[in-house]
Amino acid sequence: MDNDKIGQIIDKHQGKASSLIQVLLEIQSENHWLPKEALERVSEKLQVPLTRILHIATFYKAFSLVPKGRHEIHICVGTACHVRGATRVLETVQDLTGIKPGETDSDSKFSLETVNCLGCCALGPEIVVDGKHHGRITPAKAEDVLKKYE
After folding, report:
1. Within 13 Å and on the Cβ side, how many CA atoms surround 42?
2. Looking at the structure, do residues 133 and 79 belong to the same domain, yes or no?
3. What is the pLDDT along the chain (150 residues), one digit of tens a residue?
4. Are the C-beta atoms of residues 128 and 118 closer than 8 Å to each other?
5. Domain end (from 31, 59, 87)
6. Is the full-model pTM beyond 0.85?
7. CB neighbours of 10 closer than 8 A, spacing ≥ 6?
8. Which of 81, 91, 82 is closest to 134 using CA atoms?
9. What's the domain count of the chain?
10. Taking the mean position of all CA atoms in its chain, how far away is CA 136?
11. What domain range includes position 55?
């Protein structure tokens, strides 16, 4: 991510330190992760210590300090989804993508994460791909969903 784009994001928020989290979210959205160079630029422009930025970036699960895939898959393994077969869905997604939770595939196409609840318990098991919710997922339906992102 180039410095001009980072500058545009910061300028959009009037360079206010109070907008730090929103700035980081926008950089994460554009880039799929937060490179060190981007964090250093944000630190300089917002006049926020890099250590504070790193603390925030490592505290919130929405941020990543390592590259993520173009498509982020989140699978709910909370109680309601678990009892409805989320484990089988997770196993299927792992087999199809070749990655485990917390990993990104070698061509940066997919990243996989598990979550404890997506807030749609009545629709479980549920997966979210790039922010789009897919409910009542079976292993076969999970394969159909992933094919849309190839």
Report:
1. 32
2. yes
3. 788 899 999 999 988 999 999 999 999 988 889 999 999 999 999 999 999 999 999 999 889 999 999 999 999 999 999 999 999 999 999 999 999 999 999 999 999 999 999 999 999 999 999 999 999 999 999 999 999 987
4. yes
5. 59
6. no
7. 23, 42, 45, 46
8. 81
9. 2
10. 22
11. 3-59
